[in-house]
Design goal:
8 helices; two-stranded antiparallel sheet; binds zinc ion; mainly alpha
Length: about 220
């Protein structure tokens, strides 16, 4: 079913199918940690990969709509463009070596570049144009990309403030994209996001010491 949805460019549906697969895999896990069996580990791994794919298709849905449907249309709120820009940053960080079916990397880097330019995040936009120059870009997009890549040469080398965020664990400022993965470049803490606007959330995961009862841990947090 997910393959049909992808073929028909129903990426939101594809995300939903992968999410169902992820929850099904998780329901098959009986034990975690050191007590996990070989099967448990396999299902846990499937859960992680399927949920990552669900997130990827959810983000790509925004990119595909931006490039194929609303690109060049004037009536769209700044929040909409911010979400699309965030989604392109999320995809650059999360795709890694994956090449999921139906996902066009030209669209992702084109979005990163044009919206980076729009938001004066010139360093990030430059990265977008740089990667695009090494890709096979469809003819109808080529001229526009070349003109924009020229225009950006007169712009500063930095990203304007506004999109940079601090890691919630070590408080270091983060670059707008991290091609190595979706984690803090300083301490490695994973970035937690809202999957509507792909904005970062002020959350940090931690596990209380084993000798602290749950009730006491909750009390300490207050
Ligand atoms: Zn950090």
């Amino acid at each position: 079913m997910s393959h049909n949805a992808i073929a028909e460019k129903r990426f939101q549906d594809a995300a939903q199918y992968y999410w169902v697969l992820a929850t099904e895999s998780l329901s098959l896990v009986t034990k975690m940690g050191s007590k996990a069996s070989k099967d448990d580990k396999k299902y846990l791994k499937s859960f992680e990969e399927y949920s990552k794919l669900a997130e990827i298709y959810q983000a790509y849905n925004l990119i595909n709509k931006y490039i194929e449907e609303s690109y060049r249309q004037v009536i769209n709120s700044p929040l909409y463009y911010e979400s699309v820009f965030n989604a392109s940053r999320f995809l650059v960080n999360n795709l890694g070596h994956r090449a999921p079916q139906g996902i066009n990397k030209v669209y992702i880097y084109q979005t990163l570049a044009t919206l980076g330019y729009k938001f004066e995040a010139y360093k990030t936009a430059r990265l977008g144009y740089e990667v695009l120059s090494s890709m096979k870009v469809p003819d109808h997009m080529m001229e526009e990309i070349e003109v924009e890549a020229l225009k950006i040469r007169s712009k500063p080398f930095q990203d304007k403030d506004g999109f940079a965020f601090n890691c919630n664990r070590c408080m270091n400022i983060q670059p707008l994209v991290n091609q190595k993965g979706d984690f803090c470049v300083n301490c490695g803490a994973p970035v937690v996001r809202n999957f509507g606007s792909f904005d970062t959330l002020p959350l940090v995961e931690f596990v209380p010491e084993g000798n602290i009862p749950i009730a006491k841990a909750i009390e300490l947090l207050k």
